[in-house]
Amino acid sequence: MTIKGRTFLDGFFSATIALGVLIVIAWTGLWLTQALGGPDWRMPVRLLMSGGTLIVLGYLLKALMTGRQA
């Protein structure tokens, strides 16, 4: 694999992890707003699980690509 391809995949997997983290942070923030007496914004738990899945998939794929190069 060329250096350019590796950089692209590293960026893609890092972006996948970052998107998952942003989803989890947004879900937690809206949940805290509701828990502290704010507006009743119901966030589905599946959205939280999707964020977690993106984090895990990004990390695993990044680890697999790093291990494959070694």
What does this 3D model show about the protein?
It contains two helices and no strands. With 70 residues, it is mainly alpha-helical. 7% of the residues are buried. The mean pLDDT is 84.
Question: Brief overview, please?
Answer:
By secondary structure, the protein is an all-alpha fold. The protein contains two helices and no strands. The mean pLDDT is 84.
**Helical segment count:** 2
Fraction of helical residues: over 70%
Major sheet attributes? none
Q: DSSP strand (E) fraction?
A: under 5%
Order of helices and strands: HH
Mean pLDDT: 84
Structural class determined from secondary elements: mainly alpha
Shape: elongated
N-to-C CA distance: 12 Å
Quaternary state of the chains: single chain
What is the element layout, followed by pairings?
Elements: H1 3-35, H2 45-69
Helix pairs in contact: 1-2
Features of the shown structure:
single chain, 70 residues, mainly alpha, 2 helices, 83% helix, 0% strand
